[in-house]
Amino acid sequence: MEGGGGGADAQAQPVAQAPPAMQPMQQLSRYESQKRRDWNTFLQYLRNHRPPLTLARCSGAHVIEFLKYLDQFGKTKVHASGCAYYGQPSPPAPCPCPLRQAWGSLDALIGRLRAAYEESGHAPESNPFAARAVRIYLREVRDAQAKARGIPYEKKKRKRTQQQQPPPPPPPPPQHQPGAAAGEASSSSSAAAAAVAAEGSGSSAAAAAATSQTGGGGGGSTTTTTASAAAPTTATRV
Fold this sequence. Notes:
Layout: H1 2-12, H2 30-48, H3 60-70, E1 76-77, E2 99-100, H4 103-119, H5 132-149, H6 178-237
């Protein structure tokens, strides 16, 4: 009995709940991760700069200096003007020309750093990555690499969605003028009256012809009767 009671007490004890599992941190997108790495790399470059340079004193010239510093880590062959393969997109043999950062990589890097600068709480007006000198430098790098590698960089044109224009409305039906309609009605009435008059004339002519024939027949009968009546008189006298 006591053992049963002990079992009931054991079942009545509350079960300790396990602590909730920690939710995993929200994973950053590839773009956000790359932007954070680029921003940390630039800040490290400023700390190692001689003389030391702060972000507040950074200008477009310092950004261009940073881009040139990155060329030593580039992997794109850029032929020199005196190279035999200058302007050839697919050289048949290797050459001693240096490796550089591709223009597309530098352009994308500046875009990420420009966004990171503003996201860190700085004013867009003082953004050194948006300086005009940086844009000019990137344009010069693009043109130089296009000539050296023989690969023109064409700006991608955004395809504008063509709005479907509704079909033109059908032409309105021809409108008859009241005067023309009245003239047509009068012409129709005149034609109908002329037809009726023609029919009436034909009927009168037919009636006259019938009367003439009837009168001619009657005259013949009268003459014959008169002659017949006169004949006995002449015979009596003889």
